[in-house]
Amino acid sequence: MTANEIVKVLIVDDHPIVLSGCRGLLSSQAGVEMLEAATGAEGYDLYMSERPNVIVVDINLPDMSGLDLTRRIIAEDPSARVLIFSMNDDPVFVAEALKCNAKGYVSKNGDPNAIYEAIMQVAAGEIWLPARMAEKLAFMNQSNSEATFAGREIEILRLLANGKTMSEVAVAIGVSYKTTANICTTLRERLGARTAIEMITIALERKII
Predict the structure, then answer these.
(1) Buried b (16+ CB within 10 A) or exposed e, 122-136
(2) Which residue has the higher pLDDT, 33 or 192?
(3) Measured between alpha carbons, how far is 44 from 96 in angstroms, rounded to an integer?
(4) Whether the Cβ atoms of residue 30 and residue 57 lie closer than 8 Å to each other
């Protein structure tokens, strides 16, 4: 990108406070234009019509997973530069984001200025990960696949294996239904399962639970 080129950024997030914060942060930066969407469907349509330089996607959207939106956009435009934006900095989610060909992963728990740094680095064609997150990811990759399942993931698998519904699992582990559904999507992908039943069967066979 040239020094005078406007960086068009699309933020896809359903939290008004997050959108307001991004708006305030990016409006103070010269040469940045922000677009926004509150759902995956809106984000997809806006990306296809506006073709922003970078799209920042919340991993938890009301109508689809941010990872699913990333796959859908990149299937249509392999050159798309996607940043995943999440409260969860678990390396499992970071790894899944990179598998979807996202160009980076930003934690909402980190320095607010990191989002601007990430956007500019990705707009320049680079990958962006915080140093600590990259270290966690490297450590996870050095471990065997069974060892990388977090305690909460194992608990979700056990509860599902015991016949609990997704809603009951969410209540049992104290997170939202949306978060539980996203974790299950990630678990199915990691285990190579097409359905929840197949996921549980594989988990039992591999003695993960």
Answers:
(1) bbeeeebbbeebeeb
(2) 33
(3) 20
(4) no
Q: What is the mean pLDDT of the chain?
A: 86
DSSP letters for 51-64? --SEEEEESB-SSS
Q: How far apart are CA 96 and CA 37, in angstroms?
A: 23
Contacts 24+ apart (CB under 8 A), 170-174: none
Q: Backbone phi, then psi, for 107, in 5-degree steps?
A: -85, 135
Contact between 159 and 169 (Cβ < 8 Å): yes
The separation between CA 12 and the C-alpha centre of its own chain, rounded to angstroms, equals 11
User: Could you tell me whether strands 32-37 and 82-86 are parallel, antiparallel, or unpaired per DSSP bridges?
Assistant: unpaired
Find the angle CA(52)-CA(99)-CA(156) to the nearest 5 degrees: 115
Model's pTM, two decimal places?
A: 0.67
Which helix H or strand E contains 198, and what residues bound it?
helix 196-205
CA angle 190, 193, 197 (to 5 degrees): 125
Structure tokens at 92: 């499992």
Alpha-carbon Rg of the chain, whole angstroms? Answer: 18
Q: Which residues contact 47 (CB under 8 A, 6 or more apart)?
A: 10, 55, 73, 77, 80
